[in-house]
Structure prediction request, 223 residues.
Amino acid sequence: MSLWKAVKKARESGIYVALIDSSINQCEFDACYMTDNVNAGQMAAKEMLDLLKEAGNLPSEELKVGIMLSSDTSQAMVNRVSGFLRILVFAFTRKSGKIAQDIYLNGGNVEKAQSDAKKLIDQHENLKGIFGCNNTSTIGIAGELLEENRKDIVLVGFDMADITVQIIQNPDYFAGTLMQRQDQMGYLGLTALYDFVSGSRYEQKYFDTGVVLIDADYLSGRE
Prediction:
């Protein structure tokens, strides 16, 4: 049963519905808690620009930034890329940077993601950054940068795995990743359902739970 059908059936039965980390086009629900992925993509782009500068790239230098994602049918992925491009393309109009046209899809396969990262590096001599829109992409990029010892290429990704932590904590590399606040999604969703059962109603349906930037400073402070 599709999500829309399940939600519709629940609502028709008088059951309150709070969506977590997912949405549907029809408004057959009471509240939705998820990441605003366009904003998250914009945040990733700003981090990419900061790290490119930190890595010693000058505004006058020609450089390229690659993009990797698991699927172009995922609305979350599409929105992250959209937000990322909105910031980066505007910034590059005043500089010499470009977006690599060959955007790679890995289907959630880490081995393919690493292979794609290698292709990006091999095909673009002046590649200085790669944006990974999801966990498998980020893992693949981190693996390839570490394997090739490419300290000159910036990584900005999504989600956090052991190898992602490893490259972020290594002071020789320039890397960061964004984490969705999934704990907040679940907590607020359950709180909303309690409120609905208690008779309360919300004027809005969508709630952005935001993202957290995971960088070396964040990891040092957490330990």
